[in-house]
Amino acid sequence: MKGDIRIDGNSSTAFIVSSETDILTAENTSWSIRPYARKEALGEKDFARKWSVKPVTSRLDIARCTRNHSVPAILFSAGGYSGNFFHAFTDIIIPLYSTARTFNREVQFLITDRKPWWIAKFKTLFEALSRYEIIDIDDRHNVHCFHSLTIGLKGRNNKELSIDSSTSPYSMKDFRKFLRSWYSLKKITAAKIRDGDTRKPRLLIIPRKRSRSFTNVGEIAQLAESLSYQVIVAEPGPDVSGFAKIINSCDVVMGVHGAGLTNIVFPSRKCNLDSSSSFWNVRVGVKSFLRRSCEEHEHKVLGL
């Protein structure tokens, strides 16, 4: 949307005094939106604040600007399922990259449903996409004014951890290159070990400690070492950058299917992934289809 746009956190409303957008087809048309990429899956308890977009015919009908901005803005929610590492990437980080990358960091992020710990966790990526400090748009004390505003992020693809080429000029290959650059991930391609090679491939085991986990990590590590692997056992945590460097340094990643394996966006190309699933109550045919679909996506889209 373009024009005289005023964003009032007190009423969760974006007012458009004059706009060039062709979305508005009639005077006084307004609509509501939850600026979250997976909004269609949100239940009543899965909180993501609703925002209204409302055109007005006079500046006298709305509050005056308290802060004026010269760059475009993107308003999005950090609510929903963002506390889950998988959903943080599929529902926010990847759609945000797809939406914001074209601005070359000259864009202001406005976050609704702000979580300070969550923003701190992905601070590196936010700074990579915008040179401006994030604004908590739920703050009820300011009316922020812009000439261009995007509410919500570009829609998700049907496949998780992917970018819809019909709505974005970028691909997952571009996204992974972006991650390597900003997290300083040095390893580009996994090692190829041939007969007679004395090098040991690095194997990362992600054990998990909650609902699904390996119960014999020690035995797995011991067996892998007997097969000439250099074994590392590590769990992802709040330090995304640190774990990204660990997983990027490895040639093989082994883990139980779960949110932690979202870290497959960080390994080097041709890295081998062994994901153990717990769908033991699913018929073999369906399980084989799910595994084939995942493996095809990992190979074609993520380069693993």
Biggest beta sheet attributes: 9 strands, mixed
- What overall form do the CA principal axes indicate? elongated
Number of helices: 7
Helices and strands, in order, run as EEEEEEHEHHEEHEHEHEEH
Radius of gyration from the alpha-carbon trace, in angstroms: 22 Å
What attributes does this structure have?
4-stranded parallel sheet; alpha/beta; 7 helices; 9-stranded mixed sheet; Rossmann fold; 304 residues; single chain
What does this structure look like?
The protein has seven helices and 13 strands. The protein is α/β, with parallel strands linked by helices and 304 residues long. The protein folds into two domains: 2-182, no CATH class; 202-300, Rossmann fold (3-Layer(aba) Sandwich), CATH 3.40.50. Strands 1, 2, 3, 4, 5, 6, 7, 8 and 9 form a nine-stranded mixed sheet that branches. It is a single-pass type II membrane protein. GO terms for molecular function: pentosyltransferase activity. Keywords: Glycoprotein, Glycosyltransferase, Transferase.
Topology:
Elements: E1 2-8, E2 13-19, E3 31-33, E4 51-55, E5 67-68, E6 73-77, H1 85-100, E7 108-112, H2 116-121, H3 123-129, E8 135-136, E9 143-151, H4 172-182, E10 202-206, H5 217-226, E11 230-233, H6 240-248, E12 252-256, E13 272-276, H7 284-300
Parallel strand pairs: 2-4, 5-9, 6-7, 6-9, 7-8, 10-11, 10-12, 12-13
Antiparallel strand pairs: 1-2, 1-9, 3-4
